[in-house]
Fold this sequence. Notes:
The chain is mainly α. It has 5 helices and no strands. It is elongated, with a radius of gyration of 21 Å. The two termini are 24 Å apart. The model is unreliable at 26-37 and 150-155 (pLDDT under 50).
Amino acid sequence: MARARHEVRRAPARMSPRRRAAAEFPHPEVVSDDFGPMGTRTTATAWNIVLGIWLIVSPWFLGYGGLAAATWDAVVVGAGIAVIAIIRTARPEQTRPLGWLNVLLGLWLIISPWVVSVNHARPAPYWNDVIIGIAVAVLAWIATSTPAGRGEARV
């Protein structure tokens, strides 16, 4: 027998008050995980957008804009990370393989100071690439490997 829209559903007694309220009321209400109202995947992807933008502008903020190879590496990889993360934010389930591409770009950033021959006398590009690479790879891994329905805000 179908329930009427105005009928109140009863939630199990062991639920948190927030989840119980969401389960009992018939109107749409956002239920989120413990990582905030946006959800784990969305939050991790949003941070990758921020990190991609940082990579684009970091050569001039950290003073290595004169090193052509390091600057182009940061700008191109940063733009790629930001664009992929923006696309992932718009359609997370349909673009899941792109998330793995961001993992690979993060791993590239970790090894790029040795491949691109960054001047190790200037530690700014070296540490920037390694730290941001680790963060991007971990966040993209989290955003891509979180199963559908977990870690996302649900309506």
